[in-house]
What we know:
The chain has about 140 residues and is an all-alpha fold. It has eight helices and no strands.
Amino acid sequence: MSLQPVERTTSSEVIRMITDEEGVALARATVNLFRLWRITDAEACILLGGISKRTYARWKEGEIGRLNIDQKTRLSVLMGIHKALRVLFTEKSRVHEWVKKPNRAFGGRSALDVMLGGFLMDLFRVRHYLDAARG
Protein backbone atom coordinates (compact mmCIF):
# COMPACT_ATOMS: atom_id res chain seq x y z
CA MET A 1 0.00 0.00 0.00
CA SER A 2 1.39 3.39 -0.93
CA LEU A 3 0.64 6.78 0.50
CA GLN A 4 -1.39 9.13 -1.62
CA PRO A 5 -0.85 12.89 -1.57
CA VAL A 6 -3.62 14.95 -0.03
CA GLU A 7 -4.65 18.27 -1.52
CA ARG A 8 -3.66 21.18 0.66
CA THR A 9 -6.28 23.65 1.77
CA THR A 10 -5.67 27.19 2.82
CA SER A 11 -7.19 28.65 5.95
CA SER A 12 -9.53 30.73 3.80
CA GLU A 13 -10.85 27.52 2.23
CA VAL A 14 -11.44 26.05 5.68
CA ILE A 15 -13.33 29.18 6.74
CA ARG A 16 -15.63 28.77 3.72
CA MET A 17 -16.50 25.29 4.94
CA ILE A 18 -18.51 26.87 7.76
CA THR A 19 -20.36 29.91 6.52
CA ASP A 20 -20.93 32.96 8.70
CA GLU A 21 -24.64 32.05 8.94
CA GLU A 22 -23.77 28.50 9.97
CA GLY A 23 -21.30 29.89 12.51
CA VAL A 24 -24.00 32.06 14.08
CA ALA A 25 -26.35 29.07 14.25
CA LEU A 26 -23.58 26.99 15.85
CA ALA A 27 -22.92 29.74 18.40
CA ARG A 28 -26.58 29.93 19.39
CA ALA A 29 -26.79 26.14 19.67
CA THR A 30 -23.62 26.09 21.78
CA VAL A 31 -25.00 28.69 24.19
CA ASN A 32 -28.02 26.41 24.66
CA LEU A 33 -25.77 23.37 25.03
CA PHE A 34 -23.72 25.08 27.72
CA ARG A 35 -26.93 25.82 29.61
CA LEU A 36 -27.83 22.11 29.48
CA TRP A 37 -24.32 21.13 30.54
CA ARG A 38 -24.50 23.71 33.37
CA ILE A 39 -21.30 25.37 32.18
CA THR A 40 -20.34 28.59 33.95
CA ASP A 41 -19.69 31.73 31.93
CA ALA A 42 -16.00 31.54 32.84
CA GLU A 43 -15.83 27.93 31.61
CA ALA A 44 -17.69 28.86 28.43
CA CYS A 45 -15.19 31.62 27.68
CA ILE A 46 -12.32 29.12 27.95
CA LEU A 47 -14.07 26.50 25.80
CA LEU A 48 -14.72 29.14 23.16
CA GLY A 49 -11.06 30.04 22.88
CA GLY A 50 -10.67 32.73 25.49
CA ILE A 51 -13.42 35.12 24.48
CA SER A 52 -14.27 37.84 26.98
CA LYS A 53 -17.11 37.49 29.46
CA ARG A 54 -18.75 40.53 27.82
CA THR A 55 -18.60 38.89 24.39
CA TYR A 56 -20.13 35.71 25.82
CA ALA A 57 -22.84 37.78 27.53
CA ARG A 58 -23.68 39.27 24.12
CA TRP A 59 -23.80 35.77 22.63
CA LYS A 60 -26.30 34.76 25.32
CA GLU A 61 -28.38 37.80 24.33
CA GLY A 62 -28.34 36.58 20.72
CA GLU A 63 -25.76 39.11 19.50
CA ILE A 64 -23.20 36.94 17.73
CA GLY A 65 -20.50 38.94 16.01
CA ARG A 66 -18.11 37.82 13.32
CA LEU A 67 -16.54 34.45 14.12
CA ASN A 68 -12.99 33.48 13.24
CA ILE A 69 -11.83 30.06 12.05
CA ASP A 70 -10.79 28.96 15.55
CA GLN A 71 -14.20 29.82 16.98
CA LYS A 72 -16.04 28.11 14.14
CA THR A 73 -13.90 25.02 14.60
CA ARG A 74 -14.47 24.98 18.36
CA LEU A 75 -18.22 25.35 17.88
CA SER A 76 -18.24 22.52 15.36
CA VAL A 77 -16.25 20.21 17.65
CA LEU A 78 -18.51 20.99 20.61
CA MET A 79 -21.59 20.16 18.53
CA GLY A 80 -19.87 16.94 17.43
CA ILE A 81 -19.31 16.02 21.08
CA HIS A 82 -22.98 16.63 21.81
CA LYS A 83 -24.07 14.60 18.78
CA ALA A 84 -21.84 11.69 19.82
CA LEU A 85 -23.29 11.76 23.32
CA ARG A 86 -26.82 11.71 21.93
CA VAL A 87 -25.92 8.61 19.92
CA LEU A 88 -24.28 6.87 22.88
CA PHE A 89 -26.92 7.62 25.51
CA THR A 90 -30.69 7.40 25.20
CA GLU A 91 -31.38 9.25 28.46
CA LYS A 92 -31.12 13.03 28.08
CA SER A 93 -29.87 13.42 31.64
CA ARG A 94 -26.86 11.18 30.86
CA VAL A 95 -26.18 13.14 27.66
CA HIS A 96 -26.09 16.39 29.60
CA GLU A 97 -24.28 15.14 32.71
CA TRP A 98 -21.53 13.08 31.06
CA VAL A 99 -19.13 15.99 30.50
CA LYS A 100 -18.79 16.55 34.26
CA LYS A 101 -18.48 12.90 35.33
CA PRO A 102 -15.05 11.46 36.18
CA ASN A 103 -13.76 9.22 33.40
CA ARG A 104 -11.01 6.59 33.57
CA ALA A 105 -10.06 7.38 29.96
CA PHE A 106 -9.05 10.85 31.12
CA GLY A 107 -7.16 9.71 34.21
CA GLY A 108 -10.20 10.14 36.46
CA ARG A 109 -10.80 13.68 35.24
CA SER A 110 -14.02 14.70 33.55
CA ALA A 111 -14.28 15.54 29.87
CA LEU A 112 -14.95 19.12 30.93
CA ASP A 113 -11.70 19.18 32.91
CA VAL A 114 -9.86 18.03 29.79
CA MET A 115 -11.56 20.57 27.55
CA LEU A 116 -10.83 23.37 30.02
CA GLY A 117 -7.17 22.99 29.16
CA GLY A 118 -8.14 25.70 26.70
CA PHE A 119 -6.46 24.32 23.60
CA LEU A 120 -8.41 23.27 20.53
CA MET A 121 -6.69 19.88 20.78
CA ASP A 122 -8.29 19.40 24.22
CA LEU A 123 -11.71 19.57 22.57
CA PHE A 124 -10.55 17.19 19.82
CA ARG A 125 -9.27 14.75 22.44
CA VAL A 126 -12.78 14.41 23.90
CA ARG A 127 -14.37 14.27 20.45
CA HIS A 128 -12.01 11.51 19.28
CA TYR A 129 -12.65 9.52 22.46
CA LEU A 130 -16.40 9.65 21.86
CA ASP A 131 -16.04 8.83 18.17
CA ALA A 132 -14.03 5.73 19.11
CA ALA A 133 -16.64 4.77 21.71
CA ARG A 134 -19.36 5.01 19.05
CA GLY A 135 -17.38 2.63 16.84
